[in-house]
Amino acid sequence: MVEASMMTGIFISDKAKERVSKLLSEENKGTDYFVRVSVVSGGCSGLTYKMDFDNEVKQGDQVFEDKGMKLVTDRKSILYLFNTTLDFSDGLNGKGFHFINPNANRTCACGESFSV
Questions:
Q1: Please, which pLDDT band fits residue 5 given cuts at 50, 70 and 90?
Q2: What is the pLDDT of residues 77-93, one digit of tens each?
Q3: How far is it, in rounded angstroms, from Cα 45 to Cα 5?
Q4: pLDDT digits (tens, 9 = 90+) for 18-54
Q5: Cα–Cα dist 58/75, whole Å
Q6: How far apart are CA 49 and CA 110, in angstroms?
Q7: Closest Cα to residue 85, out of 5, 7, 3, 4?
């Protein structure tokens, strides 16, 4: 039995939302733009994350909203991204977006790729 309180979808941290909003503003992207995340083959662990800004939802896309931010992925990628959180770090150990993915059972040393 699945608990009713169990989280489902794709999520964004407060810090990532703040950075995405800033980037959209700097690039003069309107309110119709959203974050598109996907998984593609590649990297030393087999799969790698891809993140873009887009303003067109394609047929078969899975659309989620978290903290007022629209997050979209394709039907294939959601199998790898279910319950994943997009985060942003600006610390000394590296600056940039990264994914907190409970589905990944192995990641490479650089954190750019994963496997399930």
A1: very low
A2: 998 899 999 999 987 66
A3: 32
A4: 999 999 999 999 999 999 999 988 766 678 889 999 9
A5: 10
A6: 13
A7: 7
Half-sphere exposure of 37 (CA within 13 A, CB side): 29
Sign of CA dihedral 106, 10, 55, 74: positive
CB distance 37 to 71 below 8 Å? yes
Other CB atoms within 10 A of residue 115 CB? 15
Which residue shows structure tokens 């959601």? 78
Task: Specify the CATH superfamily of domain 10-115.
Answer: HesB-like domain (2.60.300.12)
Contacts of 91 (CB under 8 A, 6+ apart): none
Domain-wise residue ranges, the chain:
10-115
CA–CA gap between residue 55 and residue 3 (Å, rounded)? 34
